[in-house]
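To close the chapter, one final illustration. This time we ask the reader to focus less on the individual chains and more on the assembly as a whole: which components sit near each other, and how the overall shape emerges from the parts.
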Amino acid sequence: MRSLNLFFVAALHFIYARADFSVFTNDDAYDAAEYGLFPIQTYTSTDLVSPRLNILQSSPECDASLFTFLSPRGGAVSDATATILDQSGHLVWTIGGYDQIYNLMVQEYLGEQYLTFWAGNDAVGGHGAGFYYMLDTSYREVRKIPAAGGLAGDLHDLRITEDGTALITVYEVVTADLTELGKSSQGELWDCLIQEINIATGELIFQWRAAEHYRIADTFKDIGDDGGIGRAFDFFHINSVAKDPKGNYLVSSRYMHTLTYISGETGEIIWILGGKKNMFTDLSDGNATDFAYQHDARFADNFTGVSIFNNAVDDPHPYLAPYSRGLHIKLDEEHMTAELVGEYINPNHVRAVSQGSMQVLENGNVFLGYGNAAAFTEYAANGTVLCDAHFGPQIRFGSAEVQSYRAYKYAWHGWPLTDPEVSILTDTSDNWNFYASWNGATEVDAWILQGASDPEAGEDQWEDLEAITKTEFETQFAILELYPKYLRVLAVDKEDIVLGVSSPLDAAEEKIWSLPPLRLEGNDTWALKFLMAFAALTGVIVGSREAWSIWRSRRKGVHWEQVEQTDIRLD
Ligand SMILES: *[C@@H]1O[C@H](CO)[C@@H](O)[C@H](O)[C@H]1NC(C)=O
Ligand SMILES: *[C@@H]1O[C@H](CO)[C@@H](O)[C@H](O)[C@H]1NC(C)=O
Ligand SMILES: *[C@@H]1O[C@H](CO)[C@@H](O)[C@H](O)[C@H]1NC(C)=O
Ligand SMILES: *[C@@H]1O[C@H](CO)[C@@H](O)[C@H](O)[C@H]1NC(C)=O
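The assembled structure is written out below.
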Protein backbone atom coordinates (compact mmCIF):
# COMPACT_ATOMS: atom_id res chain seq x y z
CA MET A 1 0.00 0.00 0.00
CA ARG A 2 2.77 2.43 0.92
CA SER A 3 4.65 1.90 -2.36
CA LEU A 4 1.41 2.39 -4.25
CA ASN A 5 0.95 5.66 -2.43
CA LEU A 6 4.51 6.77 -3.26
CA PHE A 7 3.83 5.98 -6.88
CA PHE A 8 0.80 8.23 -6.89
CA VAL A 9 2.66 11.00 -5.12
CA ALA A 10 5.25 10.79 -7.89
CA ALA A 11 2.47 10.93 -10.50
CA LEU A 12 1.01 13.98 -8.80
CA HIS A 13 4.40 15.67 -8.80
CA PHE A 14 4.64 15.01 -12.50
CA ILE A 15 1.22 16.56 -13.09
CA TYR A 16 2.01 19.51 -10.87
CA ALA A 17 5.28 20.11 -12.69
CA ARG A 18 3.47 20.14 -16.03
CA ALA A 19 1.38 23.06 -14.83
CA ASP A 20 4.44 25.09 -14.10
CA PHE A 21 5.15 26.47 -17.59
CA SER A 22 5.41 30.03 -18.68
CA VAL A 23 4.28 31.14 -22.16
CA PHE A 24 4.81 29.23 -25.39
CA THR A 25 6.89 30.70 -28.17
CA ASN A 26 5.94 30.11 -31.77
CA ASP A 27 4.67 26.65 -30.93
CA ASP A 28 2.86 24.93 -33.82
CA ALA A 29 1.45 22.26 -31.52
CA TYR A 30 -0.29 25.01 -29.51
CA ASP A 31 -2.00 26.34 -32.61
CA ALA A 32 -2.95 22.82 -33.67
CA ALA A 33 -4.84 22.50 -30.34
CA GLU A 34 -2.49 19.74 -29.15
CA TYR A 35 -2.36 21.35 -25.70
CA GLY A 36 -6.11 21.70 -25.51
CA LEU A 37 -8.69 24.23 -26.63
CA PHE A 38 -7.75 26.76 -23.95
CA PRO A 39 -4.26 26.25 -22.50
CA ILE A 40 -4.17 27.79 -19.05
CA GLN A 41 -1.53 28.63 -16.49
CA THR A 42 -2.20 27.43 -12.95
CA TYR A 43 -0.43 28.46 -9.76
CA THR A 44 0.50 26.94 -6.43
CA SER A 45 -0.19 29.87 -4.14
CA THR A 46 -3.64 30.61 -5.57
CA ASP A 47 -6.52 28.92 -7.39
CA LEU A 48 -6.55 31.66 -10.02
CA VAL A 49 -5.83 30.62 -13.59
CA SER A 50 -4.78 32.65 -16.61
CA PRO A 51 -4.56 32.10 -20.35
CA ARG A 52 -1.23 30.73 -21.54
CA LEU A 53 -0.16 32.56 -24.63
CA ASN A 54 1.54 31.35 -27.74
CA ILE A 55 3.76 34.32 -28.56
CA LEU A 56 4.40 34.22 -32.29
CA GLN A 57 6.30 37.45 -32.54
CA SER A 58 7.59 40.00 -30.05
CA SER A 59 9.56 43.22 -30.15
CA PRO A 60 10.90 45.73 -27.62
CA GLU A 61 8.91 48.30 -29.64
CA CYS A 62 5.71 46.90 -28.05
CA ASP A 63 6.90 47.52 -24.52
CA ALA A 64 5.67 50.94 -23.52
CA SER A 65 5.06 49.88 -19.91
CA LEU A 66 1.57 48.90 -20.90
CA PHE A 67 -0.41 45.80 -19.94
CA THR A 68 -2.83 43.85 -22.14
CA PHE A 69 -6.50 43.84 -21.11
CA LEU A 70 -8.60 40.85 -22.15
CA SER A 71 -11.96 39.34 -21.24
CA PRO A 72 -11.55 35.66 -22.17
CA ARG A 73 -14.77 33.66 -22.47
CA GLY A 74 -16.28 31.01 -24.72
CA GLY A 75 -17.16 27.34 -24.95
CA ALA A 76 -13.75 26.17 -23.67
CA VAL A 77 -13.45 28.84 -20.94
CA SER A 78 -15.03 27.56 -17.73
CA ASP A 79 -15.29 30.96 -16.03
CA ALA A 80 -15.38 34.18 -18.06
CA THR A 81 -12.85 36.60 -16.59
CA ALA A 82 -11.48 40.08 -16.85
CA THR A 83 -7.74 39.52 -17.15
CA ILE A 84 -4.67 41.75 -17.28
CA LEU A 85 -1.41 40.32 -18.65
CA ASP A 86 2.00 41.95 -18.81
CA GLN A 87 4.01 42.38 -21.99
CA SER A 88 5.62 38.94 -21.50
CA GLY A 89 2.23 37.27 -21.13
CA HIS A 90 2.36 36.83 -17.35
CA LEU A 91 -0.76 37.32 -15.28
CA VAL A 92 -1.13 40.67 -13.50
CA TRP A 93 -4.74 40.52 -12.31
CA THR A 94 -7.83 38.45 -12.98
CA ILE A 95 -11.39 38.29 -11.71
CA GLY A 96 -14.30 35.99 -12.49
CA GLY A 97 -17.67 35.18 -11.02
CA TYR A 98 -19.56 37.83 -13.01
CA ASP A 99 -21.49 35.75 -15.58
CA GLN A 100 -20.17 36.90 -18.98
CA ILE A 101 -17.60 39.71 -19.08
CA TYR A 102 -16.93 42.04 -22.00
CA ASN A 103 -14.86 45.09 -22.79
CA LEU A 104 -12.26 45.43 -20.02
CA MET A 105 -10.80 48.93 -20.16
CA VAL A 106 -9.00 51.54 -18.08
CA GLN A 107 -11.00 54.76 -18.06
CA GLU A 108 -10.76 58.06 -16.22
CA TYR A 109 -13.72 59.33 -14.23
CA LEU A 110 -13.44 62.74 -12.52
CA GLY A 111 -9.64 62.56 -12.58
CA GLU A 112 -9.28 59.02 -11.17
CA GLN A 113 -8.39 55.79 -12.98
CA TYR A 114 -10.87 52.89 -13.01
CA LEU A 115 -11.15 49.46 -14.52
CA THR A 116 -14.43 49.27 -16.39
CA PHE A 117 -16.24 46.33 -17.95
CA TRP A 118 -19.68 45.06 -18.83
CA ALA A 119 -21.07 41.90 -17.25
CA GLY A 120 -24.36 40.11 -17.64
CA ASN A 121 -26.28 37.83 -19.97
CA ASP A 122 -24.87 37.86 -23.50
CA ALA A 123 -27.33 35.33 -24.92
CA VAL A 124 -29.89 37.93 -25.96
CA GLY A 125 -29.72 37.67 -29.74
CA GLY A 126 -26.14 38.86 -30.26
CA HIS A 127 -26.19 41.64 -27.70
CA GLY A 128 -26.42 41.82 -23.93
CA ALA A 129 -28.57 42.52 -20.89
CA GLY A 130 -26.44 43.61 -17.97
CA PHE A 131 -24.63 46.38 -16.17
CA TYR A 132 -21.44 48.39 -16.46
CA TYR A 133 -18.97 48.00 -13.59
CA MET A 134 -16.28 50.35 -12.31
CA LEU A 135 -13.47 49.07 -10.07
CA ASP A 136 -11.08 51.46 -8.37
CA THR A 137 -7.30 50.99 -8.12
CA SER A 138 -7.87 48.73 -5.08
CA TYR A 139 -10.21 46.54 -7.17
CA ARG A 140 -13.26 47.58 -5.17
CA GLU A 141 -16.45 47.62 -7.18
CA VAL A 142 -17.41 51.28 -6.73
CA ARG A 143 -20.15 51.57 -9.34
CA LYS A 144 -22.62 49.34 -11.13
CA ILE A 145 -24.21 51.48 -13.82
CA PRO A 146 -27.59 50.53 -15.32
CA ALA A 147 -28.97 51.78 -18.61
CA ALA A 148 -31.58 54.56 -18.29
CA GLY A 149 -35.33 54.18 -18.70
CA GLY A 150 -35.48 50.69 -17.18
CA LEU A 151 -33.69 49.21 -20.21
CA ALA A 152 -30.92 46.60 -20.09
CA GLY A 153 -27.33 47.77 -20.54
CA ASP A 154 -25.85 46.28 -23.71
CA LEU A 155 -22.40 44.72 -23.78
CA HIS A 156 -21.00 46.56 -26.79
CA ASP A 157 -19.77 49.83 -25.34
CA LEU A 158 -19.21 52.03 -22.33
CA ARG A 159 -17.21 55.24 -22.77
CA ILE A 160 -16.72 57.60 -19.87
CA THR A 161 -16.45 61.23 -21.02
CA GLU A 162 -14.49 64.11 -19.51
CA ASP A 163 -17.82 65.48 -18.24
CA GLY A 164 -18.37 62.45 -16.01
CA THR A 165 -21.01 60.95 -18.25
CA ALA A 166 -21.26 57.43 -19.65
CA LEU A 167 -21.96 56.72 -23.31
CA ILE A 168 -23.59 53.33 -23.70
CA THR A 169 -25.31 51.20 -26.33
CA VAL A 170 -28.81 49.84 -25.67
CA TYR A 171 -31.09 47.44 -27.54
CA GLU A 172 -34.88 47.60 -27.28
CA VAL A 173 -37.66 45.69 -29.04
CA VAL A 174 -40.02 48.04 -30.87
CA THR A 175 -42.95 47.49 -33.24
CA ALA A 176 -42.09 48.43 -36.82
CA ASP A 177 -43.52 48.29 -40.30
CA LEU A 178 -41.54 45.53 -42.05
CA THR A 179 -43.69 45.31 -45.22
CA GLU A 180 -40.72 46.50 -47.32
CA LEU A 181 -38.97 43.27 -46.29
CA GLY A 182 -42.05 41.14 -46.99
CA LYS A 183 -43.11 40.92 -43.36
CA SER A 184 -45.86 42.28 -41.15
CA SER A 185 -46.69 45.97 -40.83
CA GLN A 186 -46.68 45.28 -37.07
CA GLY A 187 -43.36 43.42 -36.97
CA GLU A 188 -40.77 43.37 -34.22
CA LEU A 189 -37.43 45.09 -34.49
CA TRP A 190 -34.38 45.33 -32.23
CA ASP A 191 -33.96 49.08 -32.21
CA CYS A 192 -30.51 50.38 -31.29
CA LEU A 193 -30.06 53.31 -28.93
CA ILE A 194 -27.25 55.54 -27.77
CA GLN A 195 -27.70 56.77 -24.25
CA GLU A 196 -25.57 59.36 -22.50
CA ILE A 197 -26.04 59.14 -18.74
CA ASN A 198 -24.79 61.26 -15.86
CA ILE A 199 -22.87 58.60 -13.89
CA ALA A 200 -23.36 60.29 -10.50
CA THR A 201 -27.11 60.87 -10.79
CA GLY A 202 -28.21 58.31 -13.41
CA GLU A 203 -29.94 61.12 -15.31
CA LEU A 204 -30.39 60.52 -19.07
CA ILE A 205 -28.76 63.40 -20.95
CA PHE A 206 -29.08 62.26 -24.57
CA GLN A 207 -30.77 59.42 -26.39
CA TRP A 208 -30.81 58.46 -30.08
CA ARG A 209 -32.71 55.67 -31.83
CA ALA A 210 -31.45 54.13 -35.07
CA ALA A 211 -34.94 53.21 -36.32
CA GLU A 212 -35.93 56.89 -36.35
CA HIS A 213 -33.07 57.75 -38.72
CA TYR A 214 -32.28 54.67 -40.80
CA ARG A 215 -34.45 52.86 -43.35
CA ILE A 216 -34.72 49.24 -42.22
CA ALA A 217 -34.29 47.99 -45.81
CA ASP A 218 -30.79 49.53 -45.95
CA THR A 219 -29.49 46.70 -43.80
CA PHE A 220 -27.19 43.99 -45.17
CA LYS A 221 -28.69 41.47 -42.75
CA ASP A 222 -31.07 38.94 -44.24
CA ILE A 223 -34.33 39.04 -42.29
CA GLY A 224 -34.81 35.28 -42.71
CA ASP A 225 -37.44 34.07 -40.27
CA ASP A 226 -37.09 37.12 -38.05
CA GLY A 227 -39.43 40.08 -37.68
CA GLY A 228 -42.39 38.30 -36.08
CA ILE A 229 -43.58 38.43 -32.50
CA GLY A 230 -40.79 37.23 -30.22
CA ARG A 231 -38.37 37.18 -33.18
CA ALA A 232 -37.26 40.82 -33.31
CA PHE A 233 -35.14 41.62 -36.37
CA ASP A 234 -31.63 42.90 -35.54
CA PHE A 235 -31.43 45.25 -38.53
CA PHE A 236 -28.76 47.71 -37.27
CA HIS A 237 -26.63 46.10 -34.55
CA ILE A 238 -24.94 49.07 -32.91
CA ASN A 239 -21.51 48.12 -31.56
CA SER A 240 -19.64 51.30 -30.64
CA VAL A 241 -20.28 54.89 -29.64
CA ALA A 242 -17.91 57.86 -29.28
CA LYS A 243 -18.35 61.61 -28.76
CA ASP A 244 -16.21 64.50 -30.00
CA PRO A 245 -15.51 67.93 -28.48
CA LYS A 246 -18.25 69.43 -30.68
CA GLY A 247 -20.73 67.29 -28.78
CA ASN A 248 -21.53 65.03 -31.76
CA TYR A 249 -21.60 61.24 -31.70
CA LEU A 250 -19.98 58.54 -33.84
CA VAL A 251 -21.77 55.19 -34.05
CA SER A 252 -20.79 51.91 -35.71
CA SER A 253 -23.48 49.65 -37.15
CA ARG A 254 -22.44 46.12 -37.96
CA TYR A 255 -25.36 45.26 -40.25
CA MET A 256 -25.58 48.60 -42.08
CA HIS A 257 -21.78 48.53 -42.67
CA THR A 258 -21.80 52.19 -41.67
CA LEU A 259 -20.29 54.74 -39.36
CA THR A 260 -22.80 57.48 -38.58
CA TYR A 261 -21.92 60.95 -37.32
CA ILE A 262 -24.83 62.35 -35.33
CA SER A 263 -25.62 65.87 -34.14
CA GLY A 264 -25.60 66.10 -30.35
CA GLU A 265 -28.06 69.00 -30.62
CA THR A 266 -30.75 67.54 -32.85
CA GLY A 267 -29.94 63.85 -33.22
CA GLU A 268 -29.96 64.34 -37.01
CA ILE A 269 -27.44 62.43 -39.10
CA ILE A 270 -24.59 64.71 -40.25
CA TRP A 271 -22.88 62.08 -42.40
CA ILE A 272 -22.72 58.36 -43.12
CA LEU A 273 -19.49 56.57 -44.09
CA GLY A 274 -19.88 53.18 -45.80
CA GLY A 275 -22.93 51.06 -46.51
CA LYS A 276 -25.81 51.74 -48.89
CA LYS A 277 -26.14 55.42 -47.93
CA ASN A 278 -22.42 56.29 -47.99
CA MET A 279 -21.97 60.07 -48.46
CA PHE A 280 -18.21 60.19 -49.09
CA THR A 281 -16.20 60.07 -52.28
CA ASP A 282 -13.68 57.26 -51.78
CA LEU A 283 -10.20 58.45 -52.78
CA SER A 284 -8.92 54.87 -52.32
CA ASP A 285 -10.94 53.13 -55.03
CA GLY A 286 -13.51 51.83 -52.56
CA ASN A 287 -10.97 50.66 -49.96
CA ALA A 288 -11.95 53.39 -47.48
CA THR A 289 -15.70 52.72 -47.62
CA ASP A 290 -16.20 49.01 -48.41
CA PHE A 291 -15.75 47.79 -44.82
CA ALA A 292 -18.25 45.22 -43.53
CA TYR A 293 -19.49 43.97 -40.10
CA GLN A 294 -16.94 46.37 -38.58
CA HIS A 295 -16.41 47.15 -34.89
CA ASP A 296 -14.91 49.76 -32.57
CA ALA A 297 -15.15 53.02 -34.53
CA ARG A 298 -13.05 55.76 -32.92
CA PHE A 299 -12.09 59.26 -33.88
CA ALA A 300 -8.47 59.59 -35.05
CA ASP A 301 -6.11 62.40 -36.10
CA ASN A 302 -7.54 64.96 -33.70
CA PHE A 303 -11.09 64.24 -34.89
CA THR A 304 -10.30 64.51 -38.61
CA GLY A 305 -10.27 60.76 -39.21
CA VAL A 306 -11.52 57.44 -37.88
CA SER A 307 -10.08 54.06 -36.98
CA ILE A 308 -12.12 50.85 -37.21
CA PHE A 309 -11.70 47.13 -36.87
CA ASN A 310 -12.99 45.89 -40.21
CA ASN A 311 -14.13 42.31 -39.63
CA ALA A 312 -14.85 42.05 -43.38
CA VAL A 313 -16.58 38.70 -42.72
CA ASP A 314 -19.70 37.55 -40.93
CA ASP A 315 -20.77 34.06 -39.85
CA PRO A 316 -22.59 33.10 -43.07
CA HIS A 317 -19.51 33.62 -45.26
CA PRO A 318 -16.69 31.80 -43.53
CA TYR A 319 -13.22 31.83 -45.04
CA LEU A 320 -14.18 32.88 -48.54
CA ALA A 321 -14.27 36.61 -48.00
CA PRO A 322 -11.32 38.91 -47.29
CA TYR A 323 -9.63 38.73 -43.90
CA SER A 324 -10.13 41.13 -41.03
CA ARG A 325 -7.95 44.23 -40.72
CA GLY A 326 -7.56 47.51 -38.93
CA LEU A 327 -8.35 50.61 -40.99
CA HIS A 328 -7.20 54.16 -40.52
CA ILE A 329 -9.34 56.47 -42.66
CA LYS A 330 -8.76 60.18 -43.22
CA LEU A 331 -11.93 62.24 -43.69
CA ASP A 332 -12.37 65.63 -45.30
CA GLU A 333 -15.77 66.81 -44.13
CA GLU A 334 -15.65 69.90 -46.33
CA HIS A 335 -15.13 68.05 -49.61
CA MET A 336 -16.73 64.86 -48.29
CA THR A 337 -13.82 62.60 -49.23
CA ALA A 338 -12.50 59.50 -47.45
CA GLU A 339 -9.03 58.06 -47.89
CA LEU A 340 -7.48 54.89 -46.50
CA VAL A 341 -4.18 56.00 -44.94
CA GLY A 342 -3.31 52.96 -42.83
CA GLU A 343 -4.09 49.26 -42.98
CA TYR A 344 -3.17 46.65 -40.33
CA ILE A 345 -3.17 43.08 -41.57
CA ASN A 346 -2.52 40.02 -39.44
CA PRO A 347 0.42 37.85 -40.65
CA ASN A 348 -1.86 34.77 -40.44
CA HIS A 349 -4.73 36.56 -42.18
CA VAL A 350 -7.03 36.02 -39.22
CA ARG A 351 -10.75 36.32 -39.94
CA ALA A 352 -12.78 37.52 -36.97
CA VAL A 353 -16.40 36.57 -37.69
CA SER A 354 -17.56 38.78 -34.83
CA GLN A 355 -16.27 41.31 -32.27
CA GLY A 356 -12.78 42.82 -32.40
CA SER A 357 -11.06 46.08 -31.63
CA MET A 358 -8.56 48.63 -32.91
CA GLN A 359 -6.69 50.92 -30.55
CA VAL A 360 -4.21 53.58 -31.64
CA LEU A 361 -1.66 53.79 -28.80
CA GLU A 362 -0.01 57.01 -27.67
CA ASN A 363 3.28 56.07 -29.36
CA GLY A 364 1.45 55.64 -32.67
CA ASN A 365 1.45 51.83 -32.60
CA VAL A 366 -1.82 50.11 -33.45
CA PHE A 367 -3.19 47.27 -31.30
CA LEU A 368 -5.81 44.91 -32.72
CA GLY A 369 -7.91 42.36 -30.83
CA TYR A 370 -9.55 39.74 -33.05
CA GLY A 371 -12.69 39.20 -30.96
CA ASN A 372 -14.08 35.82 -31.95
CA ALA A 373 -10.53 34.66 -32.81
CA ALA A 374 -8.22 34.33 -29.77
CA ALA A 375 -5.47 36.63 -31.08
CA PHE A 376 -4.06 40.09 -30.54
CA THR A 377 -1.45 41.86 -32.63
CA GLU A 378 0.52 45.08 -32.33
CA TYR A 379 1.66 47.01 -35.40
CA ALA A 380 3.92 49.97 -36.02
CA ALA A 381 2.01 52.95 -37.44
CA ASN A 382 3.27 52.03 -40.92
CA GLY A 383 1.59 48.60 -40.70
CA THR A 384 4.68 46.52 -39.81
CA VAL A 385 3.75 43.68 -37.44
CA LEU A 386 5.72 44.06 -34.20
CA CYS A 387 4.08 41.61 -31.78
CA ASP A 388 1.59 38.81 -32.28
CA ALA A 389 0.07 36.42 -29.74
CA HIS A 390 -2.66 33.78 -29.49
CA PHE A 391 -4.55 32.83 -26.34
CA GLY A 392 -6.31 29.90 -28.01
CA PRO A 393 -5.27 27.60 -30.86
CA GLN A 394 -5.49 29.10 -34.34
CA ILE A 395 -6.97 25.91 -35.79
CA ARG A 396 -10.08 26.60 -33.68
CA PHE A 397 -10.48 30.29 -34.61
CA GLY A 398 -14.12 30.85 -35.58
CA SER A 399 -15.38 28.16 -33.19
CA ALA A 400 -16.15 30.68 -30.39
CA GLU A 401 -14.41 28.36 -27.89
CA VAL A 402 -12.02 31.08 -26.77
CA GLN A 403 -12.78 34.72 -27.49
CA SER A 404 -12.35 38.16 -25.99
CA TYR A 405 -14.74 40.86 -27.17
CA ARG A 406 -11.90 43.35 -27.36
CA ALA A 407 -8.19 43.53 -26.48
CA TYR A 408 -6.68 46.82 -25.37
CA LYS A 409 -3.44 48.07 -23.83
CA TYR A 410 -3.15 50.53 -20.95
CA ALA A 411 -0.89 51.62 -18.14
CA TRP A 412 -2.36 50.47 -14.82
CA HIS A 413 -1.38 50.67 -11.15
CA GLY A 414 -3.27 48.58 -8.64
CA TRP A 415 -3.06 48.15 -4.86
CA PRO A 416 -5.27 45.21 -3.81
CA LEU A 417 -6.80 45.17 -0.34
CA THR A 418 -6.14 41.45 -0.01
CA ASP A 419 -2.96 39.95 1.48
CA PRO A 420 -0.37 38.17 -0.66
CA GLU A 421 -1.24 34.49 -1.18
CA VAL A 422 1.32 31.86 -0.19
CA SER A 423 1.82 28.10 -0.19
CA ILE A 424 4.49 25.50 0.50
CA LEU A 425 4.93 22.62 -1.91
CA THR A 426 7.57 20.35 -3.38
CA ASP A 427 8.85 20.79 -6.91
CA THR A 428 9.74 18.07 -9.45
CA SER A 429 13.06 17.42 -7.71
CA ASP A 430 11.26 16.90 -4.38
CA ASN A 431 12.65 20.11 -2.93
CA TRP A 432 10.35 22.16 -0.77
CA ASN A 433 9.48 25.63 -1.99
CA PHE A 434 7.60 28.62 -0.71
CA TYR A 435 5.36 30.25 -3.34
CA ALA A 436 3.96 33.79 -3.28
CA SER A 437 1.62 35.76 -5.53
CA TRP A 438 -0.64 38.77 -5.18
CA ASN A 439 -3.50 39.29 -7.61
CA GLY A 440 -3.43 42.81 -9.02
CA ALA A 441 -0.46 44.15 -7.03
CA THR A 442 1.30 45.95 -9.88
CA GLU A 443 3.85 47.83 -7.76
CA VAL A 444 5.62 44.82 -6.23
CA ASP A 445 9.28 44.99 -7.18
CA ALA A 446 10.60 42.18 -4.95
CA TRP A 447 9.52 39.52 -2.47
CA ILE A 448 11.39 38.99 0.78
CA LEU A 449 11.14 35.60 2.49
CA GLN A 450 11.24 35.90 6.29
CA GLY A 451 11.45 33.31 9.02
CA ALA A 452 10.69 33.13 12.76
CA SER A 453 10.42 30.41 15.35
CA ASP A 454 7.11 31.75 16.63
CA PRO A 455 4.25 32.80 14.32
CA GLU A 456 3.20 35.46 16.84
CA ALA A 457 6.75 36.88 16.90
CA GLY A 458 7.16 40.64 17.05
CA GLU A 459 8.19 42.40 13.82
CA ASP A 460 11.84 42.55 14.93
CA GLN A 461 11.97 38.78 15.34
CA TRP A 462 11.27 38.01 11.71
CA GLU A 463 14.58 37.39 10.04
CA ASP A 464 15.13 38.13 6.31
CA LEU A 465 16.10 34.87 4.59
CA GLU A 466 16.13 35.68 0.87
CA ALA A 467 14.93 38.38 -1.54
CA ILE A 468 13.83 37.72 -5.12
CA THR A 469 12.97 40.33 -7.74
CA LYS A 470 9.45 39.73 -9.03
CA THR A 471 9.43 38.81 -12.72
CA GLU A 472 6.32 36.65 -12.98
CA PHE A 473 2.93 36.38 -11.32
CA GLU A 474 4.16 33.76 -8.86
CA THR A 475 7.56 33.80 -7.16
CA GLN A 476 9.23 30.69 -5.76
CA PHE A 477 11.74 30.42 -2.88
CA ALA A 478 13.67 27.24 -2.13
CA ILE A 479 13.26 26.32 1.56
CA LEU A 480 16.59 25.50 3.15
CA GLU A 481 16.92 23.02 6.03
CA LEU A 482 18.30 25.70 8.34
CA TYR A 483 15.29 27.98 7.96
CA PRO A 484 13.13 28.64 11.01
CA LYS A 485 9.83 26.81 11.39
CA TYR A 486 7.57 29.69 10.39
CA LEU A 487 7.89 31.44 7.03
CA ARG A 488 6.18 34.44 5.45
CA VAL A 489 6.84 36.98 2.68
CA LEU A 490 6.94 40.74 2.43
CA ALA A 491 6.08 42.44 -0.85
CA VAL A 492 8.18 45.57 -1.37
CA ASP A 493 8.09 48.25 -4.06
CA LYS A 494 11.02 49.92 -5.86
CA GLU A 495 11.66 52.18 -2.84
CA ASP A 496 11.71 49.15 -0.48
CA ILE A 497 8.43 50.22 1.04
CA VAL A 498 6.49 47.24 2.33
CA LEU A 499 3.22 46.92 0.39
CA GLY A 500 1.98 43.74 2.00
CA VAL A 501 2.78 40.85 4.33
CA SER A 502 1.52 37.32 3.94
CA SER A 503 0.21 35.25 6.80
CA PRO A 504 2.90 32.94 8.27
CA LEU A 505 3.04 29.28 7.26
CA ASP A 506 4.30 26.48 9.48
CA ALA A 507 6.73 24.75 7.14
CA ALA A 508 6.61 21.46 9.03
CA GLU A 509 2.82 21.31 9.05
CA GLU A 510 2.58 22.31 5.39
CA LYS A 511 4.94 19.50 4.45
CA ILE A 512 2.58 16.93 5.88
CA TRP A 513 -0.66 18.25 4.54
CA SER A 514 0.12 19.92 1.21
CA LEU A 515 -0.07 17.28 -1.43
CA PRO A 516 0.27 18.99 -4.77
CA PRO A 517 -3.20 19.97 -6.00
CA LEU A 518 -4.77 18.09 -8.89
CA ARG A 519 -4.72 20.14 -12.04
CA LEU A 520 -6.70 18.94 -15.03
CA GLU A 521 -5.49 20.30 -18.32
CA GLY A 522 -7.42 20.44 -21.57
CA ASN A 523 -5.09 18.02 -23.33
CA ASP A 524 -4.95 15.41 -20.60
CA THR A 525 -5.96 12.06 -21.97
CA TRP A 526 -8.88 10.21 -20.42
CA ALA A 527 -6.42 7.65 -19.15
CA LEU A 528 -4.49 10.37 -17.34
CA LYS A 529 -7.68 11.94 -16.01
CA PHE A 530 -8.72 8.53 -14.72
CA LEU A 531 -5.31 8.04 -13.16
CA MET A 532 -5.51 11.46 -11.50
CA ALA A 533 -9.01 10.79 -10.17
CA PHE A 534 -7.88 7.38 -8.93
CA ALA A 535 -4.78 8.92 -7.38
CA ALA A 536 -6.91 11.53 -5.64
CA LEU A 537 -9.24 8.88 -4.26
CA THR A 538 -6.33 6.75 -3.11
CA GLY A 539 -4.77 9.85 -1.60
CA VAL A 540 -7.92 10.50 0.41
CA ILE A 541 -8.10 6.90 1.62
CA VAL A 542 -4.41 6.69 2.47
CA GLY A 543 -4.52 10.19 3.96
CA SER A 544 -7.42 9.30 6.23
CA ARG A 545 -5.65 6.11 7.29
CA GLU A 546 -2.54 8.14 8.00
CA ALA A 547 -4.47 10.79 9.89
CA TRP A 548 -6.15 8.07 11.93
CA SER A 549 -2.83 6.47 12.82
CA ILE A 550 -1.23 9.83 13.66
CA TRP A 551 -4.20 10.66 15.86
CA ARG A 552 -3.94 7.28 17.54
CA SER A 553 -0.19 7.53 18.05
CA ARG A 554 -0.55 11.10 19.37
CA ARG A 555 -3.04 9.78 21.90
CA LYS A 556 -0.45 7.23 22.84
CA GLY A 557 2.07 10.07 23.22
CA VAL A 558 4.17 8.99 20.24
CA HIS A 559 5.57 11.82 18.14
CA TRP A 560 4.42 11.60 14.53
CA GLU A 561 7.99 11.71 13.13
CA GLN A 562 8.71 8.42 14.87
CA VAL A 563 5.61 6.91 13.37
CA GLU A 564 6.68 8.16 9.97
CA GLN A 565 10.15 6.60 10.33
CA THR A 566 9.07 3.21 11.56
CA ASP A 567 6.29 3.03 9.06
CA ILE A 568 8.29 3.42 5.85
CA ARG A 569 8.74 0.01 4.25
CA LEU A 570 9.05 -0.16 0.51
CA ASP A 571 7.39 -3.54 0.14
C1 LIG B 1 -0.01 18.43 -22.89
O1 LIG B 1 0.57 19.62 -23.26
C2 LIG B 1 1.87 19.83 -22.74
C3 LIG B 1 2.23 21.18 -23.24
O2 LIG B 1 3.47 21.57 -22.98
C4 LIG B 1 2.80 18.73 -23.23
O3 LIG B 1 4.09 18.91 -22.70
C5 LIG B 1 2.24 17.41 -22.83
O4 LIG B 1 3.04 16.37 -23.34
C6 LIG B 1 0.82 17.25 -23.32
N1 LIG B 1 0.25 16.06 -22.74
C7 LIG B 1 -0.40 15.16 -23.46
C8 LIG B 1 -0.95 14.02 -22.68
O5 LIG B 1 -0.56 15.29 -24.67
C1 LIG C 1 -7.39 48.82 -52.79
O1 LIG C 1 -7.14 47.53 -52.20
C2 LIG C 1 -6.70 46.58 -53.16
C3 LIG C 1 -6.65 45.25 -52.46
O2 LIG C 1 -5.86 45.34 -51.31
C4 LIG C 1 -5.36 47.01 -53.75
O3 LIG C 1 -4.93 46.07 -54.68
C5 LIG C 1 -5.53 48.38 -54.39
O4 LIG C 1 -4.27 48.86 -54.81
C6 LIG C 1 -6.13 49.37 -53.40
N1 LIG C 1 -6.39 50.63 -54.07
C7 LIG C 1 -6.06 51.81 -53.58
C8 LIG C 1 -6.32 53.01 -54.42
O5 LIG C 1 -5.55 51.93 -52.47
C1 LIG D 1 -6.98 69.73 -32.82
O1 LIG D 1 -7.92 70.51 -33.52
C2 LIG D 1 -8.36 71.67 -32.83
C3 LIG D 1 -9.52 72.30 -33.59
O2 LIG D 1 -9.31 72.24 -34.96
C4 LIG D 1 -7.17 72.59 -32.66
O3 LIG D 1 -7.55 73.76 -31.98
C5 LIG D 1 -6.08 71.87 -31.89
O4 LIG D 1 -4.93 72.66 -31.81
C6 LIG D 1 -5.73 70.55 -32.55
N1 LIG D 1 -4.85 69.80 -31.67
C7 LIG D 1 -3.76 69.22 -32.11
C8 LIG D 1 -2.97 68.46 -31.10
O5 LIG D 1 -3.40 69.25 -33.27
C1 LIG E 1 7.93 50.68 -40.47
O1 LIG E 1 8.11 50.57 -39.08
C2 LIG E 1 9.06 49.59 -38.68
C3 LIG E 1 8.98 49.45 -37.20
O2 LIG E 1 9.09 50.68 -36.54
C4 LIG E 1 10.44 50.03 -39.18
O3 LIG E 1 11.40 49.08 -38.78
C5 LIG E 1 10.39 50.14 -40.70
O4 LIG E 1 11.61 50.63 -41.16
C6 LIG E 1 9.26 51.05 -41.16
N1 LIG E 1 9.11 50.92 -42.59
C7 LIG E 1 9.02 51.97 -43.39
C8 LIG E 1 8.87 51.66 -44.83
O5 LIG E 1 9.05 53.11 -42.95
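The first strand starts at residue 24 and ends at 25. The CA atoms of residues 121 and 129 lie 5 Å apart. With these observations in hand, you are ready for the problems at the end of the chapter.
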